[in-house]
């Protein structure tokens, strides 16, 4: 393992040696800003802008004819983008589509697979997942006439940071019909062993779905080996497809014959779609779970940025991500620990996602001080400063300067100049 040095010269040398250094120029870097919030909303890329402007130009020029240009590419855009996304998770092209948003896609997955019986009616979740996932689960349970207090089985964290994989497996009892879990916990960056958990679920006859929001685009997945039943994710974090960008949906090909829980006309077989029949003719692939007309302006930036991903490759992205987050942790140990900063994520590579969870009792006010100093962090209750040095556009020098600023804020107690009152968007 490389020994990191606590010097600006070392950081600059790392940047010079970085195989991804030229990719940074493809992103719209904000002047005098250190952007560490790419795990919430990724930076805009020039490739994404170009793809979006191209679609706007086509709309201007062709009107409704946009659906027919470029061999009907944009009428079938979900297939084009699904195939590109499938390469990031090692799935078949027809197992992946793009549609709606993450929460609606959770509703789609659960409504398709959740078929409760008197003996098997519970959905297993964890207590650290992003709340929207739980809202969707509770809602689906209620729609089936059950009380979430009974039908939703919650695996509790013992420390508020991590979930025990053994506890998840122990919770796979006979009354569990379906499982929904995050691949990476948003608060602690814990990366779960998806292959192990999925196999244990299937051995017990349980359907399992995964939320990849905090892993897609930063951690390579191999769905040929993981073999889940379905998965969902957003495309606006590491994948940088834009605010509220269209989301991703995966369904294993062994389930193509199932009826979608939420049917719509864009899930209809393309050969019969414009016959406008009242009987749904389900397209037998992931695109059969589409509902309404695809939002091209939300989809185009994703195509642009995916071109960058395929040019670089997930292996190089993951390698730099692990290295630069390790560098940030090393500097934290050396320069920040004495001021009350602690690392709240796993230090093991195979258990860590793409962001660092820096904990401090004054985390919220420190985040405000950081923003005032040109650093964009992310705060999570109760005491976490999330920092995501996204490999495609964050440099080692920026990480070094970030630590300098964190140190100065602590030494001077700059955070005391800020209120603890929460703003609308923390």
Task: Walk me through this protein's architecture.
This protein folds into two domains: 8-32 and 313-417, Alpha-Beta Complex (Aspartate Aminotransferase, domain 1), CATH 3.90.1150; 49-311, Aspartate Aminotransferase, domain 2. It is 38% helix and 12% strand. The protein has helices spanning 8-17, 46-62, 69-72, 77-89, 102-113, 131-143, 148-151, 165-170, 194-203, 223-226, 296-312, 314-336, 363-372, 396-412, and strands spanning 34-35, 96-99, 122-126, 152-155, 176-182, 207-211, 230-233, 247-251, 342-343, 356-359, 375-376, 378-380, 384-387. The strands form three sheets. The chain has a seven-stranded mixed sheet, sandwiched between helices. A four-stranded antiparallel sheet has the order 9-10-13-12, covered by helices on one side. The protein has a two-stranded parallel sheet with strand order 1-11. Strand 6 (207-211), helix 10 and strand 7 form a beta-alpha-beta unit. Helix 4 (77-89) runs parallel beside helix 11 (296-312). The longest helix is centred in the C-terminal third of the chain and has 23 residues, at 314-336.
């Amino acid at each position: 393992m490389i020994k990191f040095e606590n010097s600006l010269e070392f950081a600059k040398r790392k940047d010079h040696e970085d195989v991804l250094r030229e990719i940074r120029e493809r992103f719209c870097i904000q002047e005098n800003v250190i952007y560490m919030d790419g795990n919430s909303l990724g930076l805009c890329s020039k490739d994404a802008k170009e793809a979006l402007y191209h679609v706007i130009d086509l709309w201007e020029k062709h009107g409704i004819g946009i659906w027919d240009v470029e061999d009907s590419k944009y009428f079938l855009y979900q297939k084009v983008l699904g195939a590109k996304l499938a390469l990031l998770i090692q799935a078949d092209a027809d197992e992946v589509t793009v549609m709606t948003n993450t929460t609606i896609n959770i509703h789609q997955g659960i409504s398709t697979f959740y078929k409760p019986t008197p003996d098997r009616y519970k959905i297993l979740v964890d207590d650290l997942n992003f709340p929207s996932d739980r809202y969707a689960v509770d809602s689906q349970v209620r729609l089936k006439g059950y009380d979430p207090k009974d039908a939703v089985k919650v695996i509790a964290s013992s420390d508020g940071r991590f979930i025990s994989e053994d506890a998840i497996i122990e919770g796979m009892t006979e009354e569990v019909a379906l499982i929904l879990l995050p691949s990476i916990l948003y608060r602690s960056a814990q990366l779960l062993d998806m292959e192990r958990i999925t196999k244990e679920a299937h051995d017990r006859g349980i359907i399992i779905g995964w939320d990849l929001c905090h892993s897609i685009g930063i951690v390579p997945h191999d769905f040929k080996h993981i073999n889940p039943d379905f998965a969902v994710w957003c495309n606006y974090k590491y994948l940088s497809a834009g605010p509220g960008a269209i989301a991703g949906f995966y369904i294993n090909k062994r389930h193509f014959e199932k009826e979608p829980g939420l049917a719509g006309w864009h899930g209809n077989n393309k050969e019969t779609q414009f016959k406008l029949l009242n009987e749904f003719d389900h397209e037998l692939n992931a695109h059969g779970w589409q509902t309404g007309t695809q939002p091209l302006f939300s989809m185009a930036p994703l195509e642009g940025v995916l071109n960058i991903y395929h040019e670089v490759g997930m292996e190089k992205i993951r390698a730099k991500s692990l290295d630069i987050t390790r560098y940030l942790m090393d500097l934290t140990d050396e320069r920040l620990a004495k001021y009350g900063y602690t690392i709240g994520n796993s230090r093991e590579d195979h258990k860590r996602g793409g962001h660092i969870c820096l904990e401090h009792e004054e985390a919220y006010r420190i985040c405000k001080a950081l923003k005032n100093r040109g650093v964009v962090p992310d705060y999570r209750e109760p005491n976490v400063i999330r920092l995501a040095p996204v490999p495609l556009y964050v440099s080692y020098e920026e990480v070094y300067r970030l630590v300098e600023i964190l140190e100065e804020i602590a030494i001077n107690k700059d955070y005391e100049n800020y209120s603890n009152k929460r703003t609308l968007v923390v």
